[in-house]
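Entry
Fold in token form

___
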Amino acid sequence: MALRLDDLQFEGLKIFQNPKGYCFTSDSVLLANFVKFNPESKVVEFCAGTGVISILLTKKQKPKIIHSFEVMREPYEIFLKSIAFNKLSGKVVAHLSPLEEAVNILGVGYADVVVCNPPYLKAECGESESEKEVATKEIKTSLESVIYNASRLLKFGGKLFMVHRVDRLVDVLTTLRANKLEPKRLSIIYPKLGAEPVVFLVEALSGGKSGLRVSKVIFADDMNKASSK
């Protein structure tokens, strides 16, 4: 497996990627830029892939430790290489495990923050379990499972941060509320002026009262440029 080392253009961080596998997208970077929390927070990432979000958060938000869950072995092993390269051992703990095991490993109510860039697409019967398919389709997990398990893992007052596709916005918001995670902040991301939005970012509060704040129009290029400063 020939790996490529990509520069994340933030405080010297770099990440290994397999050009022939599933590489992270700008959606993960957008989510890492959207997340805000206290450095004392206990942080968990679901669907970590090769770890770009967790790695960026170590410098952007500076938590003491992040527990990151990835179900596929190859991205997990690449993630381990990036942790070592960036000297983040002890800061990021990668788990080769379904996110559904996070509560058993860490305990109910462990986390102050859960972060997730989940598979966006619903799976059809008979889908292959290739790396790309598992990363993009609900084969190994589902939106409902992500939100349900986040609700169990979060303390009262804890926060879930998620990126997802605009065409599933209603699914996300209704599932959050059904699991007592109240949507509090929503940003719809436009690729450029005149283009229709594709993804959105949402912050939900465990046990929160109703009241959603929607941001002004945000363009992906502007958000990414701001993140590298």
